[in-house]
Amino acid sequence: MNIYDYIDDYGIYSFKEKKFNDVDAAIFSFIVYANLKYIIKNKDMKISEAGTISSTLYKKIDNNIVAVRQGNELISYIRDVKRYKDCILTKFELNESPNIQFSAISIEYAKNKVFVSFEGTNELFSGWKENLLLSYKFPTKSQVLAVSYLNRNYTFSKKKIILGGHSKGGNLAQIAGMYANYLVRNKIEYIYSMDGPGLLKHQFNSKRYKSIQKKYKHIIPDYSIVGLFFNNSNNYVVKAKVRNIFSHSIFYWEISKNYNFIKTDLSTYSKDLQKGINTWLAKYDNDDKKEFIDNLTYILQQAKVNSILDLKTNKDKVINLIKEYNAITPTTKKVLIEFIKIVIACYESATIKDIKDKIKEILKF
């Protein structure tokens, strides 16, 4: 059973009849990917209305990137479902300046109950760049905005709060829960990270993290990649239908007949990858990482590589550009090439045809 099967079966129950659960958290964590700036704009509305608008906007062709397309499809799909249709989307916030990709939405799903969803990254390298910044920089601009969002909207609210997000959005939910003011933290019931990157060591070992640890759940697929970056705990490993980077998508996570994610163990592949990533990160100081990220962005722009699929098909071109680029040091060249190999390793269990087929399936070509 997948997310859509769950919606079909479990959607007949209201939140009064069947309480909020982990699968609902995954659904709400993904809704924020929908193109809400064109759907709800600056007003509050029920999911029924937002889903209707989305299905009208993208009735024939949806030219958005994969994550946004999936978000649009999801919100359209649940617009008439009893469990979700009367949930209210409110307090939408979006910041799309060149150096920031931040969005958040609050979903009022029951009386005095709200789920705050933070948008994550997608398959584009702009999103990967933000994840890599987490390796040395705190706070990032998106993290500051996430904390501010909670404080501005919920300091004097009486609502109980659940935080969540997918990918980078999971990290934002975690940070927001740790650093919001005391009045807000007191209202937080749970914090969900759906395969999101973790924390720097000093954050992970801090009193702030310990204060929210019991409320925190990190749900990752058995072939996780993004969710293994940096330091995390409370890992809840779930079975995914695919054995490659596409397991990052919640739509491949398997659900039991009891309407819970199917628990399993982390794959050997992911364990080895986690060890490789952590070893690679530990080799270099913050200045090296900053230089690496700046130069990686430049190299990928020159190679016209925008996504991970582009990287796999143009790997040799990218590596040659790195070798020929005289503005960077031999150490940075080595760092860049090592990173490219790690990213490519994420795809080793999937051929180019597999990847293209999965993308076609997602985009419904």
Structure report:
With 365 residues, the protein is α/β, with parallel strands linked by helices. It has two domains: 3-267, 3-Layer(aba) Sandwich (Rossmann fold), CATH 3.40.50; 283-345. 47% of the residues lie in helices and 13% in strands. The chain contains 17 helices and eight strands. It has helices at residues 3-10, 22-31, 36-39, 47-57, 66-77, 125-133, 141-154, 168-179, 182-185, 201-204, 207-212, 268-282, 286-302, 308-313, 315-324, 330-345, 352-363, and strands at 45-46, 88-95, 102-110, 113-118, 160-166, 188-194, 216-221, 235-238. α6 packs antiparallel against α13. It is globular and about 60 Å long.
- Distance N to C terminus: 23 Å
Overall morphology: globular
Total domain modules: 2
Helix and strand content put the structural class at: alpha/beta
Give the C-level CATH assignment of the largest domain: Alpha Beta
Can you tell me the residue ranges where pLDDT is under 50 for at least 5 consecutive residues?
349-365
Oligomer: single chain
Mean of all residue-level pLDDT scores: 86
What is the CA-atom radius of gyration, in angstroms? Answer: 20 Å
CATH architecture of the largest domain: 3-Layer(aba) Sandwich
Count every beta strand, where a strand is a DSSP E run of 2 or more residues. 8
- State the strand order across the main sheet: 1-2-3-4-5-6-7-8
Helical run tally: 17
The helicity comes to 40-55%
Strand content: 5-15%
Largest sheet: 8 strands, mixed
Provide the succession of SSEs: HHHEHHEEEHHEHHEHHEEHHHHHH
